[in-house]
Amino acid sequence: MSIVEINFDGLIGPSHNYAGLSLGNLASAKNAGHISQPRAAALQGLEKMRANLHLGLTQGLFLPQPRPADAWLAEVGTTIMEADPAIAANAMSASSMWAANAATVSPAPDTADGKCHLTVANLRTMPHRSHEWVATLAQLRLAFASSAFAVHGPVPPAFGDEGAANHMRLAPSHGEAGVEVFVYGVSGGPFPARQHVEASKAIARLHQLGDRAIFAAQSEEAIAAGAFHNDVVAVANGPVLFAHEKAFEDKAPLLAALDARVPGFELVEVPDAEVSLADAIKSYLFNSQLLTLPGGEMALVCPTECAETPSVKAWIDRHLASNGAIRRVEFVDVRQSMANGGGPACLRLRVQCDPADVDPRFLVDDAKLDRLAAVVGAHWPEEIDGRELQSETLVATIRKARLAVIDALNLNELTSS
User: Fold this and answer.
1) N or C: which end of the chain has fewer CB within 10 A?
2) Please, what CATH class does the domain formed by 4-414 belong to?
3) pTM, 2 dp
């Protein structure tokens, strides 16, 4: 078995709009009511996937979910045309594009049964995301149908689980056994803590991690500042933890455990005095993709907002000049996603596995990305005004667009899910 890391990006769906549905997500709230550009958003996401391919990485994707979410609307006794506008907005969200919230993943070297385990996130805290898990699970079970994987349904909804955005794995390399850090919230001022420790512990048991699981509380100050997920203030790759100084409530025992249990562990900490929490959250420095390139060096794929935030750009320049753990920084334009509160890392789910075990329809190359770009260009709406989400014409366009991409990838099993 040849284990590599595959980043599965969510293809940004044709219903991408700015409804401001995510409490605690400052960008989402700030841009509520603005005109969105679904076509540009999806093309930006495809170009990010292409850029990672050209770095020599293996790249996958997940498809947009059915929108409107008709099954969910039926459960609350209405339809998209009859629903209250607030309910309609929750049924038209394209937030499944943020694949970091799709599931939590534990690769085979960490699990007692030697399988790669995935548990779909229940996302129960926010109504617009709480209905995603059904369609997400359908894709996970199709993409990872091989016996090399164990795909689990959601943790019971009494316990909030928001997936890999609150989970980090540290190991000498992707193919070696590692330690998995589950970061949970307690409170965060006016904002809810979305990841419950009970959910994290349940997933660790389902994944048969034993003593390979570590549980750490997210900083209340960070949550209150707008770090609604851990991946807004910390990210790990290989033996490196890249984190803001104020990411964790009590970092000393976490760092001691990682230093003792991860060979070659290295902390790259950004001091609050150099990059404030506000600048880190505004730029999404830590919501970048921290990746190991084929040559072994570590790269950071950042949103262009990092280059435009003076304190962040200055820190990046100093770190590169110091020959630190991160040796290369690439900037990508995902402004449409950023305006709704999701950076490069939000858009992807990391799965360490043998690519031969994955359904190839979920893996991409340049030719497939070209084909998808053509579908997006032909079918995705150019703009969406959030006040028109119940337009019959818009709804028909969105439904037709999703069917077109399903057809382009020959994934007809997903037509109704």
Assistant:
1) N
2) alpha beta
3) 0.96
